[in-house]
Design goal:
- A 4-stranded parallel sheet has the order 1-2-3-4.
- Helices cover 27% and strands 10% of the residues.
- It is of the alpha/beta class.
- The chain has a single domain, classed as TIM Barrel (Alpha-Beta Barrel), CATH 3.20.20.70.
Length: 201
């Protein structure tokens, strides 16, 4: 049974967001101009094997509000990139947990075959464990063009971060650690990212 530790977020001041160009203090909002499309992101679906307090789309094992993306849909967008001659360099996949989507390996393969780099955001738990052999094969075929970015709150198993399973049991943390070690052993690029929060500064 999934245990959750939901926290109620403080209400936002609606006055802060009345004007898209000016802040509540009357100051000009910061803007980063779009120069070109470098990375195209795909959301593979809202289902996830865990539930995190700070998830931007409330993904969990029951939230199927966003249907699974299909490999055919990805191919259609890749065709559009090619036809429009867009300068895309990387195709990235997030969720939910991308490895819960049975089409993910095919999506990665198609993206890599067309010459793009591929990136996956994952919690590196059981859904990933079933795909190690296929991922290793892709990594061998396409060199270092496939990156797997693991989401982890802390370097210790018992923190009070947003991933609700870490405070519950050390075995979950150990599984993630094992996944990272296995990926490194398969010669995947080593990059470390963490979610910054008040509990892990």
């Amino acid at each position: 049974m999934l245990e959750t530790n939901q926290q109620t977020a403080p209400a936002l001041d609606p006055g802060k967001f009345n004007d898209p160009n000016v802040t509540a203090k009357g100051e000009q909002r910061a803007v980063v101009a779009l120069t070109h499309l470098k990375t195209l992101w795909f959301n593979t679906g809202s289902l996830c094997n865990i539930e995190c307090n700070n998830c931007y789309m409330d993904s969990n094992p029951k939230n199927d509000s966003l249907a699974y993306l299909s490999a055919r849909e990805v191919e259609e967008y890749l065709d559009e990139i090619h036809n429009e001659n867009l300068p895309v360099e990387e195709i990235a996949f997030t969720g939910g947990e991308p490895f819960m989507n049975k089409d993910l390996i095919r999506m990665l393969e198609v993206s890599l075959q067309r010459g793009y780099r591929a990136l996956i955001l994952t919690n590196a738990m059981k859904p990933l464990h079933h795909r190690f052999e296929e991922l290793a094969s892709l990594n061998t075929r396409f060199g270092n063009k496939l990156t797997i970015r693991v989401s982890i709150d802390h370097f210790k198993p018992f923190n009070t971060g947003s991933h609700v399973f870490f405070p519950r049991t050390a075995s979950c943390f150990s599984r993630v650690k094992w996944s990272i070690e296995t990926l490194i052993a398969s010669l995947f690029p080593k990059r470390v990212f963490k979610l910054a929060s008040s509990s892990n500064r």
